[in-house]
Task: inverse folding
């Protein structure tokens, strides 16, 4: 249980949130979860969730549900929607498992998947395009570039999380934009969707400067219908923002953001090192956790609570913190603190309409929050060299000593990356560190593969795999790089082409909530032509033609005259007069020279 | 559909596939358009719209010759009074209201066709009734129906001998008065000004052009968006469904043959004014917070308030119910103490000041249906104004749809635009002939189709070329060739001209 502490905490939180919504027809909840992570990082997990009755939603009476989003979803018959904006990399080695089991994060850039109600695939795709166009306008993101080449239809990687009456009529479409840079212009529309709009409650902490300065951040919007057994349905919208802030970096004042080196006296050096001297210092790891407060890390304090929360009578704590109970935490007067029984969680209820701050002084605590281990580590890189071919290498590490991990690897590759699936190879490395090549079929239990069509769709590859306990599996396959047409290259063609992150869905988890891992996005260098070539060709061809023309023209217009006539003509012509003047000038200079002599 | 729409069936499919467009990079597909016909329509040369309104006269108390005579003389008087030919009132006689075959008048009075769909096109029914104790005839317009009751003293029954009975003159004047505004409106729309209509008073002209300025362009679908805005956290909910059902649904039912309406509502808390908006000022005399009239245009914080147009075709009309903070309540407009105003061609605003008990520092969390009554009555008036309904409730004129001639030489014209244009034109002709025969519902239906098709082709997105090769670009590409070839040619030409001039001079000397 300790292994999956944070994970299971958030999972149970999510499960309890789901179950608590069943009875209420229209309510709103929000919660901030703070947890210090190793290496002086701080995970802040914001969650906003509201329910609207299905009838009010269908009649377009919007109260908590944002009208702009609701109308888009109704217009394109989208029954369930998941939208993710992510930047940075989750450092699983130091930080452990992902918040919400990875189910509320996306791959780097923008990721969108939705279940669309349509009679056939073509109509579903038409609605999907309308959906991406509308969301593009709503969220100021380049979602309109999700075309058929960036759209896939995953078979086993995603399952609807809502309760749908007619699952057969729903089409799942998935699109990614790994090159999208998520920034403040995406946060502003995201905040506008919240009922309290960043004016009250935990959403007052959002500041674009801090959020997009984080080491990792993920914004998500989820919409799904939830039905009780007696047929009462609500439409739920859940928005989350998760971010990992570097405490030291965030505490820098905005007026003076450049880090300055510490003076020698302030450095904590390891004096046991033989080279330790006035000029050499091996920095000592701090024994105590760094001090921080909400106002320092977020640059502002929290303002009260959103008055819409708890309208259905349930008491919910809007701020929770996961530190050992022994740790000293100071909070603003007027707010209350509740310590949970697990010994590591405490929650706070800020006073309404009052600023709320929370600060932890620098202190050493003997019992640290147990460090959890993720279920699976995954890493994906492009290997190989040259302009023609390359290879993909995916490394899965199973930290458990007892249980194997079953999962599905979902890759959506652009069409200009042509994988050779027959080259799929697996290498297994045990704890002894000796790699053994094994047949990929020994690990792969099933494969769903949809090959690419040039300029129409990308490759879709879903592989169900199993990694044995205490071992690392390396999966490789080769690919060929396509040569694009001249106009298909972007202006920054030499930067490389983004390849969407792989999505890994872990199957054997006891809880019902799904667990996902996403790899980082990749840059694929493609052979790029010399873009000035057409212009060179035009100029060269033109020169040759002009040369030929000049020769012919010259022959055609030249007059053939006798020598006597030529002399007479030459004297009158411009050339003759110019020559005459030149001769006169030369003569004058010569005469001057003779005078000087 | 005309014959033209049949032949280019395959080109749209070809033009839409990307492979085709990459093969022919620089050439542009331009379907044939009947430009001349479109220009004629746009200039109003093809169709002269007429609005013959049928008015049914019911005079059960009169003898048949008497009523026929009354009809004839009234029609004469009407024709004499009318100086606007497009708008023409035609009287028809029925002797009972049950719709039995009516009598036929003689000159200018047609037979009334009492088929059910035709009955709907009768603009007005005039009931002529005797009433004892009257000195002069009087009239009464029934609310909610198209019925005008005319009461006359029994002594004034027109005898067939009199050429100009006072009752006829009275009825004609009443009708003229009733339709005066509508006539002026039609004249205004058709000509752009009411110059052709002498009887229209300057005030009427002004009010018509003002109304047309404020009203929306005709659309098949209007999206009505009702928003509750408040600067604080309360009220956060309202009894909106009941309010719409009670105060708005009857009005929208009446408009159903003309346009469709969709309704959406939202609640927006923490809606603050934009920093540019001047803050309301407390007025001691009024004991209220006042907004200046000239600042009302900045009242809506367009950057912050989520008032984006509804998705789908058709314009959105926004109705904003603003509940001020208790610290700024009550809030009114300074100049006229009003609590509502219209934003022309956009929507309306209503300031709702909830009555607060003494010492109460927050607004109620929930707005009851009763407290929404005045707001929604105002909204329905604003809706009528925005839709351009005249102040006298009569048949609105059908919309006019103009096709757009294409004069840009390098923009592509897909074949579906050409077919849209031909559909528009054929429906416009149908509208014109329906109008001439007074079948307003059919004319309206045709005009709606024409309007839709015209809009669709106007906003055809493939007409905005994705690849654009301006002529300057082509010249730039060929310049390396044209330059070296052009220079010797030009120099040679100059030389040749010089030689000719010299030779000519030499010959003169």
Result:
């Amino acid at each position: 249980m300790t292994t999956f502490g944070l994970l299971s905490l958030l999972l149970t939180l999510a499960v309890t949130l789901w179950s608590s919504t069943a009875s209420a027809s229209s309510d709103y909840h929000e919660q901030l979860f703070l947890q210090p992570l190793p290496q002086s990082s701080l995970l802040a997990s914001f969650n906003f969730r509201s329910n609207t009755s299905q009838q009010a939603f269908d009649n377009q009476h919007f109260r908590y549900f944002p009208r702009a989003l609701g109308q888009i979803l109704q217009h394109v018959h989208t029954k369930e929607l998941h939208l993710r904006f992510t930047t940075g990399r989750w450092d699983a080695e130091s930080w452990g498992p992902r918040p919400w089991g990875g189910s509320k994060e996306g791959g780097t850039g923008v990721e969108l998947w939705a279940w669309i109600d349509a009679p056939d695939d073509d109509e579903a795709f038409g609605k999907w395009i309308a959906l991406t166009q509308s969301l593009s306008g709503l969220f100021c993101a380049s979602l309109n570039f999700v075309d058929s080449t960036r759209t896939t239809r995953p078979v086993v990687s995603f399952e609807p999380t809502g309760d749908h009456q007619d699952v057969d009529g729903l089409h799942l479409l998935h699109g990614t934009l790994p090159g999208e840079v998520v920034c403040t212009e995406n946060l502003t529309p995201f905040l506008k969707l919240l009922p309290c709009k960043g004016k009250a409650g935990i959403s007052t902490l959002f500041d674009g400067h801090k959020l997009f300065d984080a080491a990792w951040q993920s914004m998500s919007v989820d919409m799904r219908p939830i039905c009780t057994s007696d047929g009462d349905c609500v439409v739920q919208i859940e928005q989350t923002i998760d971010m990992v802030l570097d405490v030291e970096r965030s505490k820098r004042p905005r007026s003076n953001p450049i880090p300055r080196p510490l003076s020698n006296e302030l450095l904590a050096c390891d004096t046991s090192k033989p080279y330790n001297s006035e000029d050499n210092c091996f920095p000592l790891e701090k024994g105590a956790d760094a001090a921080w407060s909400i106002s320092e890390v977020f640059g502002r304090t929290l303002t009260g609570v959103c008055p819409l929360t708890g309208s259905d009578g349930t008491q919910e704590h809007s701020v929770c913190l996961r530190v050992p109970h022994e740790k000293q935490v100071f909070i603003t007067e007027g707010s209350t603190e509740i310590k949970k029984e697990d010994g590591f969680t405490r929650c706070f209820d800020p006073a309404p309409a009052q600023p709320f701050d929370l600060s932890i002084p620098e202190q050493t605590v003997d019992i640290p929050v147990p460090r959890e281990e993720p279920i699976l580590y995954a890493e994906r890189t492009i290997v190989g060299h040259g302009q023609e071919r390359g290879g993909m290498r995916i490394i899965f590490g199973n930290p458990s000593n007892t249980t194997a991990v079953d999962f599905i690897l979902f890759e959506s590759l652009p069409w200009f990356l042509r994988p050779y699936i027959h080259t799929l190879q697996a290498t297994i490395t045990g704890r002894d560190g000796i790699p053994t090549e094994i047949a990929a079929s020994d690990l792969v239990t099933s494969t769903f593969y949809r090959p690419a069509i040039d300029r129409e769709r990308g490759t879709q590859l879903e592989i169900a795999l199993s990694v044995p306990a205490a071992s690392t599996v390396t999966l490789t396959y080769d690919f060929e790089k396509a040569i694009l047409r001249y106009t298909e290259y972007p202006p920054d063609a030499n930067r490389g082409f983004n390849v969407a992150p792989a999505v890994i869905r872990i199957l054997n988890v006891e809880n019902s909530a799904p667990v996902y891992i996403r790899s980082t996005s990749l840059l694929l260098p493609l052979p790029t032509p010399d873009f000035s070539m057409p212009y060179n060709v035009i100029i060269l061809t033109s020169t040759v033609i002009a040369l030929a023309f000049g020769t012919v023209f010259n022959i055609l217009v030249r007059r053939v005259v006798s020598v006597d006539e030529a002399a007479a003509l030459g004297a009158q012509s411009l050339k003759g007069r110019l020559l005459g003047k030149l001769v006169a000038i030369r003569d004058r200079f010569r005469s001057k020279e003779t005078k000087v002599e | 559909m005309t014959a033209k729409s049949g032949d280019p069936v395959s080109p749209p499919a070809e033009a839409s596939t990307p492979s085709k467009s990459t093969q022919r990079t620089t050439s542009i597909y331009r379907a044939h358009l009947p430009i001349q016909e479109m220009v004629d329509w746009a200039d109003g040369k093809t169709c002269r719209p007429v609005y013959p309104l049928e008015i049914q006269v019911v005079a059960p108390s009169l003898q048949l010759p008497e009523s026929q005579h009354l009809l004839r003389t009234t029609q004469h008087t009407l024709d004499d009074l009318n100086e606007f030919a497009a708008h023409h009132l035609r009287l028809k006689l029925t002797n009972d209201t049950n719709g039995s075959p009516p009598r036929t008048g003689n000159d200018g009075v047609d037979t009334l066709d009492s088929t059910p769909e035709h009955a709907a096109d009768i603009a007005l029914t005039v009931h002529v009734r005797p009433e004892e104790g009257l000195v002069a005839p009087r009239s009464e317009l029934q609310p909610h129906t198209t019925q005008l009751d005319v009461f006359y003293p029994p002594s004034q029954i027109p005898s067939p001998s009199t050429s100009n009975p006072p009752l006829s003159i009275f009825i004609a004047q009443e009708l003229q008065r009733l339709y005066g505004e509508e006539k002026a409106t039609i004249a205004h729309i058709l000509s752009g000004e009411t110059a052709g209509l002498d009887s229209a008073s300057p005030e009427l002209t002004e009010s018509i052009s003002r109304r047309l300025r404020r009203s929306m362009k005709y659309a098949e679908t209007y999206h009505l968006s009702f928003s509750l805005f408040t600067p604080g956290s309360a009220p956060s909910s309202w009894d909106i469904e009941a309010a719409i059902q009670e105060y708005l649904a009857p009005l929208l039912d009446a408009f159903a043959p003309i346009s469709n309406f969709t309704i959406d509502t939202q609640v927006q808390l923490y809606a603050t004014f934009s920093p540019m908006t001047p803050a309301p000022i407390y007025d001691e005399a009024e004991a209220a917070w006042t907004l200046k009239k000239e600042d009302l245009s900045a009242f809506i914080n367009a950057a912050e308030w989520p008032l984006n147009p509804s998705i789908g075709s058709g314009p959105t009309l926004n109705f904003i119910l603003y509940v001020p903070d208790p610290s700024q309540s009550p809030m009114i407009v300074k100049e006229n103490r009003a609590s509502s105003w219209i934003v022309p061609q956009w929507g309306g605003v209503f300031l709702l000041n909830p009555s607060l008990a003494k010492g109460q520092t927050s607004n109620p969390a929930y707005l009851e249906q009763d407290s929404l009554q005045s707001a929604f009555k105002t909204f329905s008036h604003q809706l009528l104004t925005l839709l351009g309904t005249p102040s006298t409730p009569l048949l609105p004129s059908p919309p006019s749809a103009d096709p757009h001639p294409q004069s840009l030489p390098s923009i592509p014209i897909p074949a579906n635009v050409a077919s849209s244009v031909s559909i528009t034109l054929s429906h416009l002709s149908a509208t014109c002939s329906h109008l001439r025969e007074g079948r307003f519902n059919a004319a309206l239906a045709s005009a709606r189709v024409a309007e839709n098709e015209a809009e669709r082709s106007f906003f055809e997105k493939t007409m905005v070329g994705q690849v654009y090769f301006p002529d300057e670009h082509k010249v730039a590409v060929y310049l390396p060739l044209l330059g070296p070839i052009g220079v010797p040619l030009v120099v040679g030409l100059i030389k040749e001209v010089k030689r000719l001039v010299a030779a000519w001079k030499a010959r003169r000397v």
